[in-house]
Amino acid sequence: MGRNLTDSHLDRSNVLNNAMAMREIEKAVGLRGILFQGRYVFLKEQVASFLEIAPRTVERYLENHNEELVRNGYVVLRGEILQSLKKILSQTDVPEIDVGNILRSPQLGVFDFRAFLNLAMLVVEGSRARLMRQMILDIVIDTINLRCGGSTKYINQRDEDFIFSLYQDEDYHRQFTDALRDFVSGGNFKYANYTNKIYLAIFRERNQEYRKILRLAQKDRTRHTFYSEVLDLITAFESGLASELEKRSEALERKLEPWEVDSVFDELAALPLWKPLIEKARMKMASRDLAFRDALHENISEYIRALPVEDFERFLGEKSKELAERIEDAQDVLKRLRDRG
Question: The pTM is what?
Fold first, then answer.
C-alpha cells in the first residue's frame, strides 16, 4: 500500500473505514483527549501541538478540507453543548491549551479521533505527520495480513457468501465446458478462448492478465480468487451461453462454427440486463483489490471507490472466516443442496 495519503481521498477513507486498524492506530498514537459526552475529543491547540504545526496551519486545513473533516467527526460547538464542554475544561488540566482564552470563546471546534487522524493524513508540514502516515500504513497492512494469515490472495474466501457461490459455479461451469465440447467445433483452445471472452466482458482482463495483477502462482486457481459477486456473474454468463449454444446447435443439427459462437456471445453480452451487474462487479473487484490486495486493475480503475465500513467487517471482522471453516459450517447445507439436485 505504497500510496500517498495526503493526495488520495479514497485511501484516507479506506483507513478511516477500517475499524480493526483504527483501534490499533488509536492505541499506537496514545493522544490524550478530553472525555466529553462519552467519547474523547481534541481541541485545535492539542492536535497542533501533537503534529508539531501551528494552530493557524490547522485552521488552514479546516478551511481547505472542511467538508471531509466535518464528515469524519470535526464539529463546531455552540450554545449549551459548548457550555458543557467549557465546564469540563475549567476542571481539567490540559497542558497544550490556554483554557482561559477558550472559556471566553462563543464557539469552539473539536476533533474526535477519526477527524484528528483525517487531519494527520492531510498535513504535509513537518516530520511528525509524515511519520504518523507511515505508521498508519504499516498498521493497516499488518492488520489485513494478520486477519488473512499473511496473504491476501484468498481474502475473497473469508466472505460468508463465497462458499455457496463456489458451489454453484462448479456445477454451471461444468455445464458450460460440456456445451463447448458438445455443441462447438474446434479443439481445446475454445475453452480458454470463451472463458477469456467472458472475463473481458465483465472486468476487461484476460485470465493471464488477471493472474499477473494478483501475482498468482501456477498452482493457484483463478476462480478461487474471485469475490462472490464476480463469481456469480461469471456463472450467469456461462449458464446463459451454454443454454444458447445448445439451442442453436440443435436447431442447426450440427456443431457451431467459431464465428457462429462469437455471434451468440455478442448477442448475449449486449443484453441490457447485464449492465448494472457488470458495473457492480467491476466496482467490487477494482475497489476491494486495491484496498485489500494492493492490486490495481487499470482497465477498470474508473470504478474504484472507497470501501464502506461493511466491507472491512465482511472480510476482516469477526464474522469473516477462512474457507476451511466455511466448508465445515456449510456441510449440512451443501448436502441438502446436493440431495435436492
Answer: 0.86
